[in-house]
Amino acid sequence: MDLAGEVAAMGSEVTGFAMGDRVYGMVYPPGGAQAQYTLVRADMLAHVPSEVDLVQAGGLATAGLTAWQALAKAQVAAGQRVLIHAAAGGVGHVAVQIAKAHGAHVIGTARSEKHAFLRRLGADEVIDYTSQDFTRVIRDGVDVVLDPLGDDYGHRSLTLLSSGGAYVDVRQPNPGRPEVVAKARERDIRFTDVTVSPNAKDLVDLIALAARGQLRVAVQQTLPLSEVAKAHELSETGHVQGKIVLIP
Hints:
This protein folds into two domains: about 1-60 and about 200-245, Quinone Oxidoreductase, Chain A, domain 1, CATH 3.90.180; about 65-195, Rossmann fold (3-Layer(aba) Sandwich), CATH 3.40.50. The chain has helices at about 55-60, 60-75, 90-100, 115-120, 135, 150-160, 175-185, 200-210, 230-235, and strands at about 1-5, 20-25, 45, 80-85, 105-110, 125, 140-145, 160-170, 190-195, 220-225, 245. The chain is α/β, with parallel strands linked by helices and about 250 residues long.
């Protein structure tokens, strides 16, 4: 879905863009961005400021919009404690930076070898989920949980949220969601899920954070478009730190 590049052609009714403009966004419904030329609706794009290169922009849209829209639904505010699971992943590492930009205290779960990476992004606390039970390590509770993992993480995370807190389920699909919804309702916790959608205003706000130096996509590797199969193989290992970007 993700793309960044230059406008090569456009419809006669398109406004706000010109030939050669640098743009980024996502193709929705999904599919079609892994190509040299891609057709996409103008309202699913935003301009890329000169401070941001196209590799950065190319890895931002889907993960960035997911994180942005999830935290917006949670109404994250300055001073809140935000727990982000899988914090070193594509969505997680962007969410860490967005939450910090909002003034939140950020706690992330990730393998120990990714802790230094998360601290560089601004995480205040990091927990190794392979050797620590986050429900025991976090003693003061949290105001918001962003969970892209599901399964038992949902039930365990709810124990850390007080009445009025927000749990955001990012996993699609999540078979265990009904049970978590019911438990959240019992505890007066706001439950919401997120299905990412392209939104020009959100894209503009996201890229503005990047232009100000408050958000940077971690690009583990760039590959030529001809190696798209290799890129998918790497992604499917589940151990990519940040994003893989294809270069046409």
